[in-house]
From TrEMBL:
PROSITE patterns: HTH_LACI_2 (PS50932). Keywords: DNA-binding, Transcription, Transcription regulation. Signal peptide: none annotated. SMART domains: HTH_LACI. This is LacI family DNA-binding transcriptional regulator. Pfam families: LacI, Peripla_BP_3. InterPro entries: HTH_LacI, LacI/GalR-like_sensor, Lambda_DNA-bd_dom_sf, Peripla_BP_I. The keyword Secreted does not apply.
Amino acid sequence: MSNPFELTPTPTPTVTLKTLVRHTGLSLGTVSKALKNAPEVKPETRERVQRAAAELGYSVNLAGVKLRTGKTYTLCIVLPVEDAEQDFSDSGYMALVSGLYAALAGSYYSLVVHPQLPGESPLEGLRQLVESRRVDGLILTQTRPQDERIRYLLQQDMPFVSYGRSELAQPHPWFDTDHEDMAYQATRRLIERGHRRIAMLNPSPELMYARHREQGYRRALALAGIEFEADLLRSSGLSAGDGRRITLELSQRKQRPTAFVCANEFTALGALSAFAELGWQAGREAAVVATDDSNISAFFVPPISTYFASLHHAGRQLGSLLLRRLGGEAVERLQILECAELIERQSDLAVVTGATE
């Protein structure tokens, strides 16, 4: 039997946007934008609104927001998988995704990962996502010069940002590392240290950034008066196995390379594995320089010089650009090119030990 003298607890009043408006004295639009971390709201105003929301216990009714706006509040990053057994954590993709999550923190948006499997049409998965309206925006990686995915998204007027550029006439939002400058600086640095036969281990030539890297490499050679040797520019996958295989092949040349500029730290690791098999040491028989984003080369034996471009930072930039695009900002203002940072761990001076000059 219930106790007739028991007091019924008073329901806690629901805290709504209008509650925050009354509490802060700001307009509904300003409060709403501040809660979404909109860049047009002053930082002190955003902090004031968000502090009030925390104190009053405000939480957004996302289901209601979705119903009112017709949006999914879901964004998607499309990640190509070269191998069905590929582990994203080993490929560096997790750093990119973590940066995206950091950029979306405080917004209504969540993030999903869509793997593009080997042999799958690049457009097939995109069409399903776009035409079913399962997402509000997309992040693309590994861009091509005439990228059909970018062309399709532009035609569909779907908000997106790409990690990398294209050669399409119609502008689109992108963030990119200046791979031409990276390859140029790496090659020029080795030339200044006495190297004349420098191998470039490059990604597949169909990728936009591979073309940029080749341009930088060729420019550095040309400015130094060194003839370009096609055999020293090798394109392949980006695995340690590829780096090992190519390094072993090039070691058999009568005039072998005295330096290797590797497309990432996995290929650099493969090159060092080949060095161990050949009885070489980095910095003695030949130099190895990496251009990558994880900085694990600090733990190689010996540690090697690296041109570092953080994938976590790239993810944050991509997320920020996509939020700005979703907010209606002009495409022309949503293009960012940044240079990599040289982390020098070896002098990489040329030492002639058995290589025919």
